[in-house]
Amino acid sequence: MTRLVSRFGAVNLVRRERPLTRDELAHYVPSVFSEEKHESRSDRYTYIPTITLLDNLKREGFQPFFACQTRVRDWGYLTEWKRSAMPCSRCCYRHRPN
């Protein structure tokens, strides 16, 4: 089994033997659906929503079976908008030929 670089001490994660649904992704890794880049990014930074990448991978036959999102340690300095945009998310895919 491949180990992730991070141990993810405080995470939301979901792992299934079947492809994950959008509802499961929304519940466990809501940052996947973030639509805007973080305000600290420059104007030259091009933001591509993670869900767009997921949808494109699904069209090519890849499905997510594992997803996790790290938690922010100090919520005190974050505004409500930043809370949904800050976490990092990862998904693992398997190819399912048609």
Task: Give an overview in words.
This protein is α+β, with helices and mostly antiparallel strands and 98 residues long. The protein has one domain (15-95). It is 23% helix and 21% strand. It has three helices and three strands; from the N terminus they run E-H-H-E-H-E. A three-stranded antiparallel beta sheet has the order 1-2-3, covered by helices on one side. The longest helix is centred in the middle third of the chain and has 10 residues, at 50-59.
Q: In short, what is this structure?
A:
The chain has helices at residues 22-28, 50-59, 80-85; strands spanning 11-15, 62-70, 89-95. The chain has 98 residues and is α+β, with helices and mostly antiparallel strands.
- Uncertain segments: 77-89
Count of individual helical segments: 3
Structural class: alpha+beta
The rounded distance between the terminal residues' Cα atoms is: 26 Å
Instruction: Profile the largest sheet.
Output: 3 strands, antiparallel
Q: Could you give the order of strands across the largest sheet?
A: 1-2-3
* Fraction of residues in helix: 10-25%
Per the principal axes of the C-alpha atoms, what is the gross shape? globular
Oligomerization: single chain
Kindly estimate the percentage of residues that lie in beta strands according to DSSP.
15-25%
Count of all domains:
1
Encode the helix/strand succession as letters: EHHEHE
Give the mean pLDDT: 71
Question: What does the radius of gyration come to?
Answer: 14 Å
Q: How many beta-strand segments?
A: 3
